[in-house]
Design goal:
By secondary structure, the chain is α+β, with helices and mostly antiparallel strands. The chain folds into 2 domains: 22-213, 3-Layer(aba) Sandwich (Rossmann fold), CATH 3.40.50; 220-257. Helices cover 33% and strands 19% of the residues. The strands form 3 sheets. It has a 6-stranded mixed β-sheet, sandwiched between helices. Strands 1-2 form a two-stranded antiparallel sheet. The chain is elongated.
Length: 257
């Protein structure tokens, strides 16, 4: 409705416990799934989720901590996606680096090669959250050239100020175009995007934060010959100064004898 879509089937339900869309005695699966759930929703740990319908099929990677349902939402999203389907979720960026239960779930999903891209968004895009969000894109049928890799995009600086609400930022059409092009090309872009192998992600505790892998600083180019000559000049000047001091001290001693 918000985006002008008029052909839809809207149902009200607690999706984590009782999925509203069902067929053939189980929850329904879709070609494309998009979600923007409440971030860090409390009260959906193992004990609660086990009371829900189809919990074995939907939370097969593990149960999140009671303090945050982020990875419960992600698992529900994946379970609701067909075997050749794609999905995307807007969620708190902190879910990319939290440890313990969330790391264990994250690791299994990475190892199954379901994550295609992670996009770090600018802060202050949402009315109810100052924290940075992310878009995670999942693809259950990655093309061969993308297998074993995840595209990380740091779009934290891709924004404009909201025209009427001072405390908010927006994504302009040019910002969106840059992000979409980076996703479609699936290539490294200096200071913006990087294709990362699973081995590197594993070595970083399955942390998927784009800022961990993408640097915004230029490497300083050092002219070794120039630096050596500068050092040599300083040493020679110091030696000259030492000689002058010795001569001065010697003259003083001669005077006071």
């Amino acid at each position: 409705m918000l985006n002008g879509v008029i052909d839809f089937n809207l149902k009200k339900s607690n999706s984590l416990l009782n999925p509203a869309f069902k067929e053939n005695g189980t929850f329904k699966k879709f070609d494309i799934v998009v979600s923007n759930p409440q971030w860090n929703m409390e009260g959906y740990g193992e004990e609660t989720l086990r009371k829900g319908e189809f919990w074995r099929e939907r939370f097969k990677y593990g149960f999140p901590p009671r303090q945050s349902a982020d990875w419960a939402w992600i698992q529900h999203l994946l379970a609701s996606t067909k075997e050749n389907g794609k999905a995307a979720i807007v969620i708190d960026n902190n879910c990319l680096s939290r440890m313990k239960r969330e790391k264990a779930i994250r690791a299994k999903i990475v190892e199954e090669d379901l994550i295609e891209a992670v996009i770090l968004l600018p802060e202050k895009l949402f009315y109810n959250a100052n924290a940075q969000g992310i878009i995670m894109i999942f693809n259950k049928n990655k093309p061969p050239e993308r297998k074993g890799k995840i595209l990380l995009i740091d779009a934290s600086n891709e924004y404009e100020k909201h025209p009427t609400i001072k405390k908010l930022n927006i994504l302009s059409s040019s910002n969106i175009k840059k992000i979409v092009e980076a996703y479609r090309n699936f290539k490294d872009v200096p200071k913006f995007a990087r294709v990362v192998e699973f081995s590197e992600i594993m070595n970083n505790d399955f942390n998927l934060s784009p800022s961990l892998y993408i640097t915004h600083f230029e490497e300083e180019q050092i002219d070794m010959d120039k630096e050596f000559n500068e050092l040599k000049k300083i040493i020679e000047e110091n030696k000259k100064l030492e000689n002058e001091i010795e001569e001065y001290v010697s003259n003083v001693l001669e005077v006071i004898k």
